[in-house]
Design goal:
Blueprint: E1 2-6, H1 11-22, E2 26-31, H2 40-48, E3 53-56, H3 62-71, E4 77-80, H4 87-92, H5 94-114, E5 119-125, H6 148-166, E6 171-177, E7 179-181, H7 200-208, E8 215-218, E9 230-231, E10 233-235, H8 236-247, E11 253-258, E12 264-265, H9 266-277, E13 283-286, E14 295-296, H10 301-307, H11 315-329
Parallel strand pairs: 1-2, 1-4, 2-3, 4-5, 5-6, 6-11, 7-10, 8-13, 9-14
Antiparallel strand pairs: 9-12
Helix pairs in contact: 1-2, 1-8, 3-5, 5-6, 7-11, 9-11
The structure holds nicotinamide-adenine-dinucleotide (NAD) and UDP-4-deoxy-4-formamido-beta-L-arabinopyranose.
Length: 331
């Protein structure tokens, strides 16, 4: 298939482009590079031997999106990663998030429709489950959000549901990612956030490389085995492959969790990282982070049954590849 990947230069997008190329697909990337670097395209070529077509542009700008479809007439489907994702920033700048994520998606969908391309895989998030009453979480759990970023994911899901209900030609698969971590085995691709990271694994990586002094663990008084928050960490290469499976099975409206089904606490992650990399991670216990939930992990059964999706990489793989990438790439 010929696939337009919005946000394909970013963390999850770049790993997915590699997996798609390795599975024989032709790729066109549209990215405005607001949170990624153009060098990633060379790394994709180094890994796969093939350079994806790339157009710099913004999904909010109709002419940028039209330009992609007018240049590449035969696009079969879109995988839509482009979006802003920092929860804290979304609370400070909600309009930026509603504009970039929601208005951007509406513009993308209008252009797709005008060009007769009505097949999309969308990057949703486990954040749409809010604070789940029980775990593991199945796709039919009640949806809610605790911040504007999460609201953008929820609204975009609703837009895609409405679109599929209005026109049977549309196929939309909503993938709800749990906590993607890790890096490509080559160490050429990975997550390299600017400044102080918001998420656990990039923060651990910066501490491990001596760029930050110690990890601040946000709360040890949750109702979990060791008191720290529990999440479903999934290797980004497993997550990437989930998109390759999903794009081949587009059929009406589908919703899948992409996780491993196993929850690890913050302290489990610290210990696993130390063991995998034979290093010591200094940490301290801080108060809870506002808005955090105690436990969230997936029931991945539906994705396994319908997509054949199964995460195969271990927690050791996640910790090892993260550190190898950080050592090579964190300046
Ligand atoms: P990322 O920031 O690394 O990648 C997003 C890419 O989209 C970047 O390359 C950025 O430059 C581009 N982009 C942003 N706004 C754009 C716009 N208006 N026009 C064109 N390009 C634009 O983030 P990621 O971690 O790879 O996440 C990809 C998607 O997955 C996002 O939609 C995110 O919300 C979603 N998601 C991420 C996580 C996570 O923990 N990383 C979890 C669940 C869902
Ligand atoms: C994991 C655990 C923290 C940092 C967020 C978004 C969600 C999704 C993934 C996109 C929690 C603890 C963290 C630190 C810590 N993104 N922690 N010290 O909160 O599950 O989800 O990213 O969709 O929308 O909300 O991930 O990595 O931030 O936190 O103790 O410096 O690590 O309290 O228990 P989270 P996270």
């Amino acid at each position: 298939m010929k696939i337009l990947v919005t946000g394909g230069v970013g963390y999850i997008g770049s790993h997915t482009v590699v997996d798609l190329i390795e599975n024989g697909h032709d790729i066109v990337i549209l990215d405005n590079l607001c949170n990624s670097k153009i060098e990633v395209l060379d790394k994709i070529k180094e890994i796969t031997g093939k350079a994806p077509a790339f157009m710099v542009g913004d999904i909010r700008n109709r002419s940028d999106v039209d330009n992609v479809f007018n240049t590449h007439h035969d696009i079969d489907a879109v995988i839509h990663f482009a979006g802003l994702k920092a929860v804290g920033e979304s609370c400070e700048k909600p309009l930026l998030y509603y504009d970039n994520n929601i208005a951007g998606t509406v513009t993308l969908l209008k252009s797709m429709s005008a060009h007769g391309c009505k097949r999309i895989v969308f990057s949703s998030s486990a954040t749409v489950y809010g604070d789940p009453a029980t775990v593991p979480v199945t796709e039919d759990f009640p949806l809610s959000t605790t911040n504007p970023y999460g609201s953008t994911k929820l609204y975009i899901e609703q837009i895609l549901k409405d679109l599929c209900a209005s026109d049977s030609e549309w196929d939309a698969t909503l993938l709800r990612y749990f906590n993607p971590v890790g890096a490509h085995e080559s160490t050429l691709l990975g997550e390299n956030p600017n400044g102080i990271p918001n998420n656990l694994m990039p923060y651990i990586m910066k501490v491990a490389c001596g760029k930050l002094e110690k990890l601040h663990i946000f709360g040890d008084d949750y109702p979990t085995a060791d008191g720290t928050g529990v999440r479903d960490y999934i290797h980004v290469c497993d997550l990437a492959h989930g998109h390759t499976l999903a794009i081949s099975k587009l059929d009406g409206l589908k919703i899948y969790n992409l996780g491993t089904g196993t929850g690890y606490s913050v302290l489990d992650m610290v210990k696993a990282f130390e063991k995998a990399n034979n290093i010591k991670l200094p940490y301290c216990i801080d108060p809870r982070r506002p808005g955090d939930v105690a436990v969230n992990f997936a029931d991945p059964a539906k994705a396994k049954e319908e997509l054949g999706f199964e995460a195969t990489r271990t927690l050791e793989d996640m910790c090892r590849t993260s550190y190898e990438f950080a050592k090579k790439n964190f300046k």
